[in-house]
Design a protein that fits this description.
By secondary structure, the chain is mainly β. It is built from four helices and 19 strands.
Length: 276
């Protein structure tokens, strides 16, 4: 079986609460639902019965200014430790506080419920800005999430440095920081070539470190979240416009887990044909 070295794991990220800032990790265990503790929690809008997501920035862009971190390293993918949430005003709430719903509702000025269990048929609102190449323009649509998860579509998302470098070439004054794209895995292709390299990887297997194997299911279309203001990054609609114009609004890949294990920053990343 042909096995091609494609780079190394430059960084890995876990986002304990959906749409909040995540944690940069040195290592993480990976199970069927991705990195242990990733999107383990979410906020629920009691008025609309939808999951709160920065994909609808008019309501929820402020979530990107919150920092969520787990109190301990998760030992399994079923038992997730409590989470600390640092709000933009400097105060901190934890999932262990009985009054967490009240505190978050007061801060957001909306009736909020903090969720550790996924409701039946979870969905969220997604705003599509007026950008040529997006599915809709200046509309809000309902996005149904995979049952039993707080993911938009897949358990793991990855992007390469080559793709970020190519977008930077196309729009030199933009800030194509990987945080805009919220990947779990940032793969350093260790190449001077700036190109949308992972576009050709769909249907193959990504092997990381000693044991983890991931199926590359689809390319990853981008949304308004890439354009939003967040700590150290300005609002910039041209981030999405550049992605739409030059790569059909694609940047990165979506993956599912074939075999779990432990991944670490610096691990080698290999590409191989699907064993099926």
């Amino acid at each position: 079986m042909k096995r091609t070295f494609v780079g190394s794991l430059k960084s890995l990220w876990r986002y304990p609460v959906k749409s909040m800032q995540g944690e940069k990790l040195d290592r993480s265990d990976v199970g069927a639902q991705g990195l242990f503790g990733d999107r383990a929690y979410a906020l629920w809008d009691e008025k609309t019965n939808r999951i709160a997501s920065a994909k609808n920035p008019q309501k929820w862009s402020s979530l990107l200014n919150c920092y969520a971190s787990l109190k301990q390293i998760p030992q399994t993918d079923k038992s997730i430790p409590p989470v600390h949430i640092k709000l933009p005003n400097g105060s901190t709430v934890t999932s262990e506080q009985a009054e967490i719903n009240t505190l978050l509702s007061q801060w957001l000025d909306r009736e909020i419920k903090f969720l550790s269990a996924v409701p039946e048929a979870p969905s969220l609102d997604q705003y599509w800005p007026d950008v040529e190449g997006t599915d809709h323009q200046d509309t809000v649509t309902q996005l149904f999430m995979p049952p039993g998860t707080f993911f938009d579509s897949c358990p793991i998302h990855a992007i390469t440095t080559a793709t970020l470098d190519r977008l930077q070439e196309l729009y030199p004054t933009g800030q194509f920081d990987s945080r805009r794209f919220r990947p779990n895995l940032l793969i350093d292709t260790q190449s001077k070539s700036a190109e949308f390299i992972e576009n050709a990887w769909v249907g193959q297997i990504l092997s990381i470190g000693d044991s983890v194997s991931l199926k590359i299911d689809t390319l990853c279309p981008r949304c308004v979240v890439t354009t939003l203001e967040q700590p150290e990054l300005p609002k910039d609609l041209n981030i999405l416009k550049t992605t739409a114009k030059h790569n059909k609004v694609i940047a990165g890949i979506r993956l599912s887990v074939i075999q779990g294990g432990t991944i670490r920053q610096g691990d080698s990343v290999w590409l191989e044909a699907d064993k099926a």
